[in-house]
């Protein structure tokens, strides 16, 4: 152990009080044949200085968005995190506390979660939010389970190919032993087509998940799609990007104010959380009032104390596993409270103008880069649909790996190859541009593409001459 | 120091025109938004977020923070949650550029350091559990349970076996039965005895060939090592079923015994408990699972693998080619930030240090038990592992003082309450887990407080706490007429 | 209704039987003892009108802040009427459990389960033993 608390004298006194001769004697509660008769095969302990050196060495073996300009997205984004977010989230009173079971000594967390819920309802235009789930994918899966339970008897879940592939895989796993079936909607043009959706929904459809913007960065025709799903009696689950709500219509308002999505889920990492290789992130889930008793996870409510002061408590807990056990709305217990706190601080700092400006910068810069890359001649846009901060380009040289490697050499994490999820898009790359990227970086990335094309042309030319 | 004046909501502090963050001006040619986005998709107005200045935001959240008890500031013997000290060195490591800022879709060649760390963590967790295969993907303990049950379901499906039931002791965490239902099983509750041990008669009556999994917490939720562990594992295995070990209480047995050695086929870890990843006001956690060889091929993909070519540095990669895998249980790799902290914890403790963690956790719990049992009976007996459950039943009957009254009064003494009313099998339960990172002085003071409280005027206790900013919130009103947001 | 004139299930529901055009209809509620032991109810999930219930099948749920309790139909039959306003007036359960606090009416299709119900005295005795 890196520190010792009980001194040998303490230990002796404690053992005497217990009435045993040694700690070993206490451990005899574990039957002898189960006891490990050797030390664990683990590396010997490091001191703090050694750990520091060791972890720094590991870190230097990685490239990162700190060392390389990051154009990777696909559900996790290199947005700016203001210093205040880190300062608040690294206060021990927040990050070393736990679930607010004793409201009197957890008003800080409870009020912050109430504020988080309030911000999420304002962002989405829906009535209620929980106080977080694991990530966007599990929030989407939980929303699907809510919809199945709410639409008693309906069993089909319509998922478009334009929804994040890992969200689709997660939902499939969640449904693997339950009575719901996935109906896949192909999106050859990068967005859901109204006619295709109309043909996929029927009286068996429990819900349709509509991503906005979708995995390809494209804007779906959310108004029309919502109307079609609702006409079939299905619930609409929006999977949105919270930053995009600086310019895009709120899910709750799709197809008309207050007439939109029934449940809205999101990956909230963009709201002030570091990338940290995939997690912990923030699963956001909000819904209409009528679904409140089907919400998974913790919810904070406002009330008064015995002296009449406004205060906050965990509420509607009978939905949850610790009370309802096998009839709970979900098994979720630990959530992502600290990440929800980060999102709350982030949104408080940005305000309406900051969110709008951030969204505008993403929108303008991503369009600028797409144009520059296409002008190089090497890339072309794959989908005609409008985009927000991400876009898919086809590499005319069909050398996505080469593009990414060239990018790395020049200090860029240039894009995500799509072939892993979409074999038909094996020559395509998904590129994301946040407000952090500067014109200088965008121009430099475009220049690499132009110069390699130029280089290739020269190589081809000289190859011809040699021949 | 707490500023008692500042409890306004963010929304109350808002004033039109205030700004906290200045964004750079757009340095690319600006195109009219209408030319980039379809009119129908554009929001008519910005979301109704509060408008605040930076000093307000800082003061608001700083003041909120001071209304929390936390491990950094208070003794927090919340049973079953393992509220141990969170070493700051781990926080620093997890935040390093090159570890804390990696994008999940970076090429593998650019994250060899991170993959090496995660590969080693898989190996460490397998060694500590005695179960050879590991998935780091699940996001929390309950998520690990669910993942393991999906693994079990896939295993039985692959073998063509129809098994529909999961056995869960009545003292188990609620997550166990809830996870079983989500994985498509029905739950069968097994009774436990007053000692906390599984009622073997009831267990045998309920064991049949339809049992897929027995989910057992060991040490169990009253903090005793299951005396019939051997028989339970043997009898479940003899019927072709699997044993799932809820790893919530691993802090008691690190290096002492291994779940794989006492019959478990699968287990999850709570790194935020056992390996000191902080609890974050309710999360994040992580829920890595370890399983036996025969279940390995069903684990979620990807898993980190290592290739050693001759005379070359090892190369790490993500293995997605797992045809029998249950698939993904979430997006991206896992709650890596929490896993990095767990890695640091294991590296700074080593084999001897980890065992010492459990030894000291068990010593502290037994010492506290020996002091408390004289005035608050502990139905399970005189010994425990890392925690114990005292009962205020007698006090309730004799003086009308409930476990809740005691819990609330402890807050006045500057100590977080133990877990109350869990497990439901112990009346007026007070579940105390001191952890290894508390001193004898703290435990002595806590025992004295508890004793003093049991002697206090019941009226004083019914209205406690008296020194906190708020006291006894009206939970009935909160649930009857829920106010769940400050709506704009 | 007078509690002394009602029948009771061991699970603490009360039943009033009335003869209706050739059949029997049961009015069902929960006893004052049950309401008191459930403490501070916050929510009721009422049964759906028109559903059929088996005797001793759970057909309704009441929630306090930290507990959920099933309410079982003491009789077998079809739910013909539901006390819908009760959902917004939970205080009726404690203020008037045998009157305004009734939960549902069930048209009985099988008389057999009625034999298993307790009269007032037997129910009082059972409660006394439980306490």
From TrEMBL, chain A:
Residues 8-447 form the Glycine cleavage system P-protein N-terminal domain. Keywords: Oxidoreductase. GO terms for molecular function: glycine dehydrogenase (decarboxylating) activity. It comes from the Bacteria. It catalyses: N(6)-[(R)-lipoyl]-L-lysyl-[glycine-cleavage complex H protein] + glycine + H(+) = N(6)-[(R)-S(8)-aminomethyldihydrolipoyl]-L-lysyl-[glycine-cleavage complex H protein] + CO2. Its EC number is 1.4.4.2. GO terms for biological process: glycine decarboxylation via glycine cleavage system; nucleoside metabolic process. Pfam families: GDC-P. The glycine cleavage system is composed of four proteins: P, T, L and H. In this organism, the P 'protein' is a heterodimer of two subunits. Belongs to the GcvP family. N-terminal subunit subfamily. The glycine cleavage system catalyzes the degradation of glycine. The P protein binds the alpha-amino group of glycine through its pyridoxal phosphate cofactor; CO(2) is released and the remaining methylamine moiety is then transferred to the lipoamide cofactor of the H protein. This is Probable glycine dehydrogenase (decarboxylating) subunit 1.
TrEMBL record, chain B:
It catalyses: N(6)-[(R)-lipoyl]-L-lysyl-[glycine-cleavage complex H protein] + glycine + H(+) = N(6)-[(R)-S(8)-aminomethyldihydrolipoyl]-L-lysyl-[glycine-cleavage complex H protein] + CO2. One of its GO terms (biological process) is glycine decarboxylation via glycine cleavage system. GO terms for cellular component: cytosol; glycine cleavage complex. Its EC number is 1.4.4.2. Keywords: Oxidoreductase, Pyridoxal phosphate. GO terms for molecular function: glycine binding; glycine dehydrogenase (decarboxylating) activity; pyridoxal phosphate binding. The keyword Oxidoreductase applies. The glycine cleavage system catalyzes the degradation of glycine. The P protein binds the alpha-amino group of glycine through its pyridoxal phosphate cofactor; CO(2) is released and the remaining methylamine moiety is then transferred to the lipoamide cofactor of the H protein. PANTHER family: GLYCINE DEHYDROGENASE (DECARBOXYLATING), MITOCHONDRIAL, GLYCINE DEHYDROGENASE, DECARBOXYLATING. This is glycine dehydrogenase (aminomethyl-transferring). It comes from Botrimarina hoheduenensis. The lineage of its organism: Bacteria, Pseudomonadati, Planctomycetota, Planctomycetia, Pirellulales.
UniProtKB/TrEMBL annotation, chain C:
The keyword NADP does not apply. Residues 25-107 form the Lipoyl-binding domain. The modification N6-lipoyllysine is found at residue 66. Transmembrane segments: none annotated. GO terms for biological process: glycine decarboxylation via glycine cleavage system; protein lipoylation. This is Glycine cleavage system H protein. SUPFAM superfamilies: Single hybrid motif. The glycine cleavage system is composed of four proteins: P, T, L and H. The glycine cleavage system catalyzes the degradation of glycine. The H protein shuttles the methylamine group of glycine from the P protein to the T protein. Keywords: Lipoyl. InterPro entries: 2-oxoA_DH_lipoyl-BS, Biotin_lipoyl, GCV_H, GCV_H/Fam206, GCV_H_sub, Single_hybrid_motif. It comes from the Bacteria. Its cofactor is (R)-lipoate. The keyword Ribosomal protein does not apply. One of its GO terms (cellular component) is glycine cleavage complex. Belongs to the GcvH family. Binds 1 lipoyl cofactor covalently.
């Amino acid at each position: 152990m890196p520190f010792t608390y009980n001194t040998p004298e303490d230990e002796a006194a404690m053992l005497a009080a217990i009435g045993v001769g040694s700690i070993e004697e206490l451990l005899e509660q574990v039957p002898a044949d189960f006891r490990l008769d050797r030390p664990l095969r683990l590396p010997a302990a490091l001191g703090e200085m050694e750990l520091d050196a060791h972890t720094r060495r590991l870190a230097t073996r990685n490239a990162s968005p700190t060392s390389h300009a990051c154009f990777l997205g696909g559900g996790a984004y290199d947005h700016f995190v203001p210093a205040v977010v880190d300062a608040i989230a690294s206060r021990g009173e927040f990050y070393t506390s736990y679930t607010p079971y004793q409201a009197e000594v957890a008003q800080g967390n409870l009020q912050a979660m109430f504020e988080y819920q309030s911000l999420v309802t304002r962002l989405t235009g829906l009535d209620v939010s929980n106080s977080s789930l694991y990530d966007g994918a599990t929030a989407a899966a939980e929303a699907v389970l809510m919809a199945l339970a709410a639409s008693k008897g309906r069993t089909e879940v319509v998922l478009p190919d334009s929804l994040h592939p890992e969200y689709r895989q997660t939902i499939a796993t969640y449904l693997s032993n339950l009575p719901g079936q996935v109906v896949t909607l192909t999106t050859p043009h990068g967005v859901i087509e109204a006619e295709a959706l109309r043909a996929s929904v029927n009286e068996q459809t429990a819900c349709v998940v509509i991503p906005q913007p979708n995995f390809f960065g494209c804007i779906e025709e959310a108004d029309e799609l919502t109307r079609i799903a609702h006409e079939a009696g299905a619930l609409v689950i929006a999977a949105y990007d919270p930053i995009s709500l600086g310019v895009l219509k709120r899910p709750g308002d799709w197809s008309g104010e207050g007439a939109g999505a029934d449940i809205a889920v999101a990956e909230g990492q963009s709201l002030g959380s570091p990338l940290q290789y995939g997690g912990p992130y923030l699963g956001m889930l909000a819904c209409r009032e009528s679904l409140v008793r089907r919400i998974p996870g913790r919810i904070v409510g406002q009330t008064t104390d015995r002296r009449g002061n406004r205060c906050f408590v965990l509420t509607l807990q009978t939905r949850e596993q610790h009370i309802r056990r096998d009839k709970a709305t979900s098994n979720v217990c630990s959530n992502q409270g600290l990440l929800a706190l980060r999102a709350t601080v982030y949104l408080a700092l940005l305000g309406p103008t900051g969110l709008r400006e951030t969204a505008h910068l993403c929108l303008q810069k991503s369009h600028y880069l797409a144009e520059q890359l296409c002008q190089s001649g090497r890339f072309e846009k794959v989908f005609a649909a409008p985009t927000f901060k991400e876009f898919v380009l086809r590499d005319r040289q069909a050398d996505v790996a080469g593009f990414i490697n060239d990018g790395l050499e020049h200090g860029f994490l240039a894009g995500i190859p799509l072939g892993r999820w979409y074999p038909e898009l094996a020559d395509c790359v998904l590129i994301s541009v946040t407000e952090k990227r500067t014109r200088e970086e965008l121009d430099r990335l475009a220049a690499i593409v132009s110069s390699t094309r130029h280089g290739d042309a020269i190589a081809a030319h000289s190859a011809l001459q040699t021949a | 120091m707490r500023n008692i004046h500042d409890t306004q909501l963010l929304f109350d502090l808002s004033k039109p025109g205030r700004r906290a963050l200045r964004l750079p001006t757009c340095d690319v040619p600006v195109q009219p938004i209408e030319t980039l986005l379809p009119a129908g998709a554009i929001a008519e107005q910005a979301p109704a977020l509060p408008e605040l200045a930076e000093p307000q935001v800082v003061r608001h959240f700083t003041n909120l923070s001071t209304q929390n008890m936390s491990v950094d500031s208070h003794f927090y013997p919340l049973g079953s949650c393992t509220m141990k000290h969170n070493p700051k060195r781990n926080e620093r490591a997890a935040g390093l550029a090159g570890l804390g800022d990696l994008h999940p879709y970076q090429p593998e060649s650019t994250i060899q350091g991170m993959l090496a760390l995660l590969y080693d963590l898989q190996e460490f967790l397998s060694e500590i559990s005695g179960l050879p295969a590991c998935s780091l993907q699940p996001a929390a303990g309950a998520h690990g349970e669910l993942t393991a049950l999906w693994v079990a379901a896939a295993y039985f499906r692959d073998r063509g076996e129809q098994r529909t039931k999961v056995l869960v002791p009545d003292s188990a965490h609620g997550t166990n039965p809830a996870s079983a239902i989500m994985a498509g099983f029905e739950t069968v509750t097994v009774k436990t005895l007053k000692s906390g041990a599984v009622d073997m008669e009831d267990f045998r009556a309920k064991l049949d060939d339809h049992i897929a999994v027995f989910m057992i917490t060991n040490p169990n939720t009253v903090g005793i090592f299951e005396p019939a562990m051997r028989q339970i594992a043997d009898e479940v295995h003899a019927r072709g079923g699997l044993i799932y070990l809820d790893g919530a209480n691993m802090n008691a047995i690190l290096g002492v015994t291994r779940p794989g050695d006492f019959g478990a086929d699968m287990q999850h870890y709570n790194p935020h408990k056992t390996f000191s990843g902080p609890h974050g006001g309710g999360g994040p956690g992580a829920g890595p699972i370890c399983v036996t060889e025969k279940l390995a091929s069903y684990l979620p993909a990807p898993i980190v693998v290592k290739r050693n070519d001759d005379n070359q540095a090892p190369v790490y990669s993500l293995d997605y080619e797992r045809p029998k895998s249950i698939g993904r249980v979430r997006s991206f790799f896992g709650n890596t930030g929490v896993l990095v902290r767990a890695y640091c914890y294991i590296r700074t403790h080593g084999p001897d240090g980890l065992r010492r963690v459990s030894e000291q956790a068990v010593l502290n719990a037994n010492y506290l038990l020996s002091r408390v049992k004289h005035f608050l009976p502990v139905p399970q007996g005189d010994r425990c592992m890392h925690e114990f459950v005292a009962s205020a039943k007698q006090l309730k009957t004799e003086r009308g003082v409930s476990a809740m009254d005691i819990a609330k009064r402890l807050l006045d003494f500057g100590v977080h309450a133990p877990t109350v009313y869990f497990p439901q099998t112990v009346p007026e339960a007070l579940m105390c887990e001191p952890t290894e990172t508390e001193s004898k002085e703290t435990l002595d003071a806590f025992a004295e407080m508890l004793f003093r409280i049991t002697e206090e005027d019941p009226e004083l206790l019914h209205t406690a706490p008296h020194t906190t900013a708020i006291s006894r919130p009206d939970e009935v009103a909160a649930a009857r007429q829920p106010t769940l947001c400050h709506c704009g | 209704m007078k509690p002394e004139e009602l029948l009771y299930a061991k699970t603490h529901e009360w039943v009033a039987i009335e003869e209706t055009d050739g059949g029997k209809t049961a009015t069902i509620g929960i006893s004052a003892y049950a309401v008191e032991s459930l403490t501070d109810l916050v929510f009721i999930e009422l049964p759906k009108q028109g559903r059929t219930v088996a005797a001793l099948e759970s057909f309704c749920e009441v929630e306090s802040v930290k507990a959920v309790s099933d309410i079982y139909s003491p009789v077998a039959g079809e739910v013909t009427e539901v006390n819908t306003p009760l959902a917004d007036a939970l205080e009726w359960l404690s203020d008037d459990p045998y009157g305004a606090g009734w939960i549902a009416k069930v048209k009985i299709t099988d008389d057999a389960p009625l034999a298993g119900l307790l009269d007032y005295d037997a129910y009082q005795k059972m409660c006394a033993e439980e306490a």
